[in-house]
Design a protein that fits this description.
Elements lengths: L8 H22 L4 E6 L5 E6 L5 H14 L5 H7 L6 E3 L2 H8 L3 E5 L7 E5 L28 H11 L5 E8 L5 E8 L5 H12 L9 H8 L11 E3 L2 H10 L2 E5 L5 E4 L17 H30 L10 H8 L6 H21 L2 H22 L4 H14 L5 H21 L1 H17 L1 E2 L2 E2 L55
Antiparallel strand pairs: 1-2, 2-4, 3-5, 4-5, 6-7, 7-9, 8-10, 9-10, 11-12
Helix pairs in contact: 5-8, 9-13, 9-14, 11-12, 11-13, 11-14, 14-15
Length: 502
């Protein structure tokens, strides 16, 4: 490497350190077979270096090498103006050089060994195109989903929110992966305190490799030990654009086809974005059905265990012969019977998820029918409990957010144990513990149980019920937005002309 004469003391030491770092970096690069270095067009020409597995070879030949072959050798600053490409950088910062080369840029040096170089982005785009949503599929509404390319995802959002107030703060997370992460929000609407909280938590992340947005979600949540999710994972650009206009923030990661949304309340996890594509009374009805389905999924099996074990007096007289005939030949107590059935359902569900799609659905249906029928005929479980467990599993599938459905699957087992130990009192005690935990829980500093606690009647307009859009004049209060007004009222005009003769 060349050194500058006349540098003494600290400046010379700094230059020596930079040169050594430059040499060490290129030794690591050259140890890989896909790293190419050559001079163009002669021994005294430019030195070009890049990873051929990361760059677009056609773009390199047509837009870079073609320019170098038709022009006389010029300094890098003049060469930068001859190449008609964006984001060309001239630098000698070793960190910038390393990051850009590993991101698909080619490096041009005026002479071999120069520390100052020109970095031209020629990254090879191998990302998939946008497709329909899979986990959040809706009959009505847009059919676009996020992909693994962060730039593509930002394009999908900016096309839906073409305003200058849409801000995107970029970070690098992962000491090894150096993955790009973007925090999205609308300036002038969002509460700046929430933005500061998120950016601080992202800046505090210390982990070597971040490969998915779920890693980030686990590291920035308020309570990392809670079974209840505090951030919503979405794959729909329309969903993210809608909540950004409410005053929430979005977090997207390069390489992940999902985005995180927060802050949220527990009611948010019972709301499907498809509710907004229907009239308000149908959307409200479906939300109430989901709430009933959750309660049934959690309490059906524990109530069966509690009533059969301790409180058989509450069983109606007409129902007693059915339960006696159903459990007459069962050699196991109700708790063991319930755990066996619940465990079988979970095994079938995991098997269906891990197997290929065409085989998984067959395993789930055939396995459930065969195993359930065989267990009843063999006398291991009662047909009444089998029906309750099957209905509870079906009710858990109604959740629009996959994360909360996993939580519901898990908390059924503590309720089963409480029902076995203390009966209905155990169920009440376990419910009290869960409720206390939810009351203390927060999502990015906002109350998790709002609008139930603290009680805010204004926010009921889009929680358990969904009122018409004309009634949703203000943004949710728990977000503490800078601009709480969504709809500006206009003077109503009186239509004096009638469509029919009266």
């Amino acid at each position: 490497m060349r050194f500058f004469k006349g540098m003494k003391g600290k400046d010379a030491a700094a230059s020596q350190c930079t040169s050594n770092d430059f040499q060490d970096l290129f030794k690591k690069f050259e140890a890989s077979k896909d790293f190419l270095t050559f001079q163009f067009p002669d021994e005294d020409g430019y030195t070009i270096s890049y990873f051929n597995s990361l760059v677009n070879a056609q773009q390199v030949h047509e837009q870079v090498l073609a320019v170098l072959s038709t022009h006389q050798k010029k300094p890098l600053q003049q060469l930068k103006g001859d190449i008609t490409m964006e984001d060309i950088k001239e630098t000698k910062d070793i960190k910038v050089i390393q990051r850009l080369i590993l991101s698909g840029s080619i490096m041009i040096q005026y002479k071999t060994g120069d520390e100052t170089c020109l970095l031209i982005p020629c990254a090879l785009d191998v990302k998939r195109k946008t497709s329909i949503p899979e986990s959040e599929y809706t009959v009505a509404g847009p059919k676009e989903a996020f992909v693994e390319s962060l730039d593509t995802n930002l394009n999908l959002i900016r096309n839906r929110l073409p305003i200058p107030d849409l801000q995107a703060k970029e970070f690098r997370v992962g000491s090894i992966s150096q993955t790009r992460l973007v925090v999205l929000y609308i300036d002038g609407i969002v509460n700046q305190q929430i933005v500061d909280t998120v950016t601080q938590r992202i800046g505090d992340i210390e982990y070597d490799t971040i490969v998915d947005i779920s890693f980030v979600g686990q590291m920035i949540t308020d309570n990392r030990n809670s079974m209840f999710p505090q951030l919503i994972d979405t794959e729909r650009p329309d969903h993210l654009a809608s909540v950004l206009s409410e005053g929430k923030i979005g977090i997207m990661l390069d390489g992940s086809p999902h985005a995180l949304v927060g802050p949220n309340t527990i009611i948010s996890f019972f709301s499907s974005f498809e509710d907004y594509f229907q009239i308000w009374n149908l959307g409200t009805s479906f939300r109430l059905i989901r709430l009933f389905a959750v309660l049934f999924s959690i309490f059906s099996s524990p109530l069966y265990v509690a009533v059969i074990t301790y409180h058989y007096q509450v069983i109606p007289t007409n129902l007693l012969p059915l339960l006696i005939s159903s459990r007459g030949v069962i050699p196991f107590p109700p708790i063991l019977e319930a755990i066996v059935l619940e465990g079988t359902i979970e095994l079938l569900r995991e098997a269906a998820v891990r197997l290929p799609a065409k085989v998984g659905s067959t395993i789930g249906i055939v396995g459930g029918i065969v195993i359930g029928t065989a267990a009843v005929e063999a006398g291991f479980v009662s047909n009444v409990l089998l029906m309750l467990v099957a209905l509870a599993a079906l009710a858990s599938f109604t959740m629009p957010i996959y994360q909360i459905s996993n939580t519901i699957r898990l908390i059924r087992f503590p309720f089963l144990l409480a029902a076995q130990l203390y009966g209905l009192f155990g169920l009440a005690l376990c419910s009290a513990f869960i409720l206390c935990h939810l009351l203390k829980l927060k999502s990015l500093g906002s109350p998790y149980m709002e609008p139930l606690y603290p009680m805010r009647f204004d926010d009921f307009k889009d929680s358990l019920i969904r009122l018409p859009f004309s009634k949703q004049i203000k943004r949710p209060r728990f977000l503490r937005t800078e601009n709480p007004i969504r709809i500006k009222k206009k003077a109503e005009t009186q239509n004096t002309q009638s469509d029919i003769d009266e």
